[in-house]
Here is the input.
Amino acid sequence: MDLFGSFALLLAFLCGLYAFGGGIAAIVTRRPLLIKSARHAGMAVCVLIWLGFGSLAYLFQTDNFSMAYVVEHSNRTLPAFFKFAAIWAGQQGSLLFWSFLLSIYVFSVLVTYRGKHPELMPYVGVVMVGVQLFFLTLNNFIASPFQILGSAAPSGALQWILRADGNGLNPLLQYPEMVIHPPILYSGYTGFTIPFAFALAALLGRYPGEKWIHLTRRWTMIAWGFQGVGILLGAHWAYAVLGWGGYWMWDPVENASLMPWLTGTAFLHSVMMQEKRGMMRVWNVWLVFTTFLLTIFGTFLTRSGVVNSVHAFAQSSIGPWFLSFIGLVLLVCFVSFWRNRDYLRSDNTLDSLVSRESSFLFNNLILLVACVAVISGTLFPVLSEWVRGTKISVGVPFFNTINLPIGLFLLFLTGVGPLLAWRKTSLASLRKNFGGPLLIGMVVGVVGMALGLRNFYVVVCLALSVFVTLTILLEFYRGARVIASRGNSNLLSGVAQLTMRNTRRYGGYVVHFGIVLIFIGISGTAFNQDKQADMPPGAQMQIGSYRLTHQTFDSTELPNYTSERATIAVDRGGKQIIMLYPEKRFYPSNQESGTMVAIYSTLKEDLYVVYAGHSPETQQPVIHAYLNPLVKWIWLGGAIVVLGTLLALVPNRQPMLALRAVQEPSRAAPALSPAPAPVQHYDGHD
Amino acid sequence: MIDAHHANLPCPSEVRAWRIAVLILLAAAMAAAPLFAQAPVQTSDRARTLGKQLMCTCGCGDTAGSCSHPGAAFSGPCEIAKAKLKEVDERMSRGESDSAILQAFVQEYGEAALAAPPARGFNWFAYTFPAVAFAIGLALVLMVIRQWRHRMVMAPASGPGVSAEMLEHARRQIEREMPDD
Here is the structure.
C-alpha cells in the first residue's frame, strides 16, 4: 500500500504536468480536444491524490510501522478516529492533506463548469493545476509521507525495518476537536485557491464584465466560512485543551489563520462594489491575490520555524520552497496585472462621501490595517533580530494594545455600513437609521459606567454592540413591516419572507450579529479571575461566587493513557450546582501529559477548572480555577456567523415566487380567474 | 425603494412597542452590569500580575504569570516561570516599583524578557506601523474618492438623460436575469 500511495502521487504529479502544459497549449491553440484533454487530466490528478491520501489513511489504520510517518505519529492503542487525525499531525501528512482538500475543490470546479464558460475555464484549470503542482512537488520530492524505515545491513545492503509500535500521537492533538479543526481550517485555506484561480484567469483571459465575481461568490463564501469556523474551533481547542484559561494567544499560527480571513472578509465586502457599481476592480483582484498569498504565507510561517509557536507541530527546512512559490505567484500576479491593467478600469463614479461605497472603502481600509497589524506584530521579532541583532518578544499585551481600537472601529462600521444607501445617503436618512440606535447605545454605555463599569474598551464595546444590534433589528423590522402590511401576514412571517428574498443581504446581517456576540464575549476577558492552590481531598477554594470542594481523587489505567481525575463539587450560595471532573492524562508512548479541562459554562461566565497535577514541591494535587465571564457568547456568536453564512449561500426565492404568481391562476381557470395579482417587489438598499 | 415605504408615520402601537423594546434593553443592560462590576483580576499575588508582562521561556509561548506548561506533568507555572515570579516577589518585597522590576529583567535577560517590546527606539516601528499604514491607507482612500468624484464632474453629458435610479434598476434586472452559477 505504501508503494501504491507513492505511485499514485507520482502519477498525479505527471498528470498535473500534462494538465498544466496541455492547458497552456489549449489556451494558445484553442483546440477543443486539447481543452477537454487538459480538463480530464486535471480531474485525474484529483482522483490520484485521493488514492494517495486513502492509502496513507489505510497505512495508519492498519498500524503499518514500517512507515516512518506512521511510526512518528501513531501507535497501536490509539483510537481509530485519532489514527485518522494523525494523518495531518506532521509535516508530510498535513501537506498531503492540503493537496487532498485542494483536489476536492478543483474537481468540484471542473465538474460544475464542465462545458461552460469556454473562454475562462482553460485559464482557471491552468492556475488551479499550477497550485496543485507546487503541493504535489512537495508531496513527492520534498516531504513524502511514504518514506519507509530502513537501515544498512552488515553487508552494506539496505534492509527494511518493521517497528513493533509507534511513538504515538501528540497528546495535545488527542482531543475530538482536533479531528475536525484542521480539516475545516485547511478547507478555508485551500478554498481561497478557487477565487484566486478565477481572478487570475479573468485577468489573463481579459474575461469581460463581472462574471468571474458571480461565479466565485459562493466559493469565496464557503472558503471564508470554513476559515472562520476553523479559527473558532482552534480557539475552542486551545481553551479546552491547553489548560491556560484563554482561547486566543496571538500565537503566530493563530495569526497566520487570521490574516487571510481578514483580507477575505474585506474582499467579500468590496466585491459588492464591483457587482453593483463596476467599481474597485483593481482592488478586488489584488485582494484575492493577497488572500491567496496569505494562505501560503501562513503555511510558510507554520512550517518554516521562522517564528516560534506552541502550535507549530510541523517545522522543517521546507520554508525556502514556500518562499519561492510566494515569489513566483507574486511575479505572475504582478505581470498579469501590469499587462492587462486597462481591463480593470472602473466604469462608475462616486456620487457622495456618505454612501455605501465609501463605507466599503473604510471597511476595507480597517480590515487591511488589522491584517497589517497582525503581520507586523508576528514578524517584528524576526525584523528586530535582523536589523538590531536583538531578540524581542511580541506577546498578548502588544497585540491587544494595537488591535483593540482597530476591532472596535470595525464593530462601529459593522453597524454603520449596511444602512448607508448606495450612491448617496441623505441627512434625514442618516438621522432616521442611526439616531435612535446611537442614542440608546450611548445611554447603555453611560448606564454601564454608572453601575461600575470602568474599563474604557469594555464600555465602548458594550455601547457599540447595542448600537449595531439595534441597527440590524431595525433593518429587519422595517423591511418585514412593509411586507407584512402588504401581504396581510404577521411580522415574523414578514421577516422570513424578507430574508428569503435577499438571502445574501440578510444573511450578512445575521453574520454581523454573530460578530457582535463574539465582541461581547471577548470583552469579558477584561474581568477574568483565576486562583491556583494545593487541594488535597476535602480542601476548598472560593472563586467569585463559587465554592469548589475537592471530594475524591482517582486514577485509571487505559490502553492509550493513564488518567488522574479529581472530583470537584461546585456550590454557590450553599447549593450544589454541578460536579466537575478535571483530568490529567499521561501518555506512555511519547512520555507526555495532557489536560482535560472541566468547564461549567453559562451565558454569564465559565467556571474553568484544571487539575494541574501534583505540585513538585508539596506533592499535593493542585487545582487551578478560572472565572471567565461571557466566553459562551463567543461560541454562540460563532454558531450565528455560520448560520448567517449558510443563509447567504441560499439562492433568493423571489424570482420563483414571481413566476408562480403570474402563471398559476391563468392555468387553473383562464376564463374566470381575476387578473393576476401584481408581483410584490420589496426593493432593498443593496 | 425602502425609504418610500417608510415615509408613513408609525402607529401608536408601534411607538408603544418601541418604548417597550428600549425599556427591555435598558433593563438587560442594568441586569448585566453587576457582572461587569466585578473587581478586575483578583490574583492575590501582585507578582503574578506583573509576571503577565514577562515572557516565560519554557516554550509555552505564554507569560511567566500565566504559564501552564502544556504537555508537562505539572500544568502550573514551570520552573522557569516560578524562578521569574520568585525574583519579582523578592524585588517587590525590597520596595522596587513595577517599572523598575521590569527594567531590571530587561537588563538581566534582554528585551526578549518582556511580553511586549518597550515603546522606544526601533520598537516604535512595531507600535506605529499599523497607524502609519492606516494614515497611508486613508490618504489613498481619500485620493480614490476624489478621483471618482472628479470623474463624475468631468463625465460628458451625451445621449438621452438616464437617471441613476434607472441605471440601478437596469443593473438589478441584469443581475436577476443572469444565471447565478
In short: Residues 356-388 of chain A form the longest helix (33 residues). Confidence is low (pLDDT under 50) at residues 655-686 of chain A. Chain A touches chain B through 113 residues (CB under 8 Å).
